[in-house]
Amino acid sequence: MTTVGARWCVAVLAAIAVVVPAVATAAVAPGIVGGDVVDIADAPWMVALVDQQGHPFCDGVLIAPGSVVTAAHCVGGRTADGIQVLGGRTDLGQVTPGDTVTTVDSIAVEPGFLAAQRGADIAVLTLTNDVPYRPLPIAADTSYRPGTMGTVLGWGRLGQAGPDTTVMHGVRVPIVPEATCRKLYDTFVTGTAYDPNAMFCAGYLTPPGRDACQGDGGGPLVVDGRLAGIVSWSIGCGHYPSFYTKVTTYLG
């Protein structure tokens, strides 16, 4: 997930006039703040994207036996032959019987994608080989009602300055009303307008922090057992709701 720098984390509800350039920063190791360990058996559609050296750099979600959806910002500057998809592991540092590594045949980035904060932050990877895990179905439009709870999952960093972990974690967060997402967006992003068809936000405006974290791009927000959002960008980790690609706009 791309992030807006922590130095900009001021009180949104106080309407302090702070703006940042609408330009995505580089993705780093994924993570979840305030969550619990999730076994891959309970989320068999979760996959990690790894580079040619075997280093995880983003998450993905299996939506068909040979298709993975992730964030467009995760694959920027990368080619299909530079990405491998790892499935079937709770802990990326430990081999699990039956886990699978496959290469990627092609990458399809949503047309018009420029930066995570501008929307269209979604890409589909076509795998060289099908993988033997249950895909995650796409959510319905009703999944985005304010207050609806979803679960965001990922591997890695457990806080803005917290420890790394190779074990998958998940945390439940509420979907935030559009007006609040728009106010948050307008406070921190300049040069482009908030598009509720492209993105939505979910999380908390008050502590304790429960959130996706820096670099958790490409991971899912799951509502009622269906894929509603893709982790896109945030303002720090656990300070404010994070922004997610609205999957039904692009895959519904």
Description:
By secondary structure, the chain is mainly beta. It has helices at 72-75, 178-188, 247-251; strands at residues 2-4, 20-21, 32-33, 36-37, 46-50, 56-64, 67-70, 84-87, 100-109, 123-127, 149-155, 168-174, 189-190, 199-202, 211-212, 220-223, 226-235, 242-246. Strands 1, 4, 11, 12, 14, 16, 17 and 18 form an 8-stranded mixed sheet that branches. The longest helix is centred in the C-terminal third of the chain and has 11 residues, at 178-188.
Largest sheet, strands/sense/barrel: 8 strands, mixed
User: How helix-rich are the residues, as a percent range?
Assistant: under 10%
Please provide the ordered H/E string of secondary-structure elements: EEEEEEEHEEEEEHEEEEEEH
Unreliable segments (pLDDT under 50, ≥5 consecutive)?
A: 5-30
Shape verdict: globular
Q: Whole-number radius of gyration?
A: 16 Å
Q: Could you give the distance between the termini?
A: 22 Å
Number of contiguous helices: 3
Number of strands: 18
Strand content: 25-35%
The average pLDDT value, as a whole number, equals 84
Structural class: mainly beta
Please summarize what this structure is.
By secondary structure, the chain is mainly beta.
Give the arrangement of secondary structure elements:
Layout (H helix, E strand, L loop, with lengths): L1 E3 L15 E2 L10 E2 L2 E2 L8 E5 L5 E9 L2 E4 L1 H4 L8 E4 L12 E10 L13 E5 L21 E7 L12 E7 L3 H11 E2 L8 E4 L8 E2 L7 E4 L2 E10 L6 E5 H5 L1
Parallel strand pairs: 1-17, 2-13
Antiparallel strand pairs: 3-15, 4-12, 5-6, 5-8, 6-7, 7-10, 8-9, 9-10, 11-12, 11-16, 14-18, 16-17, 17-18
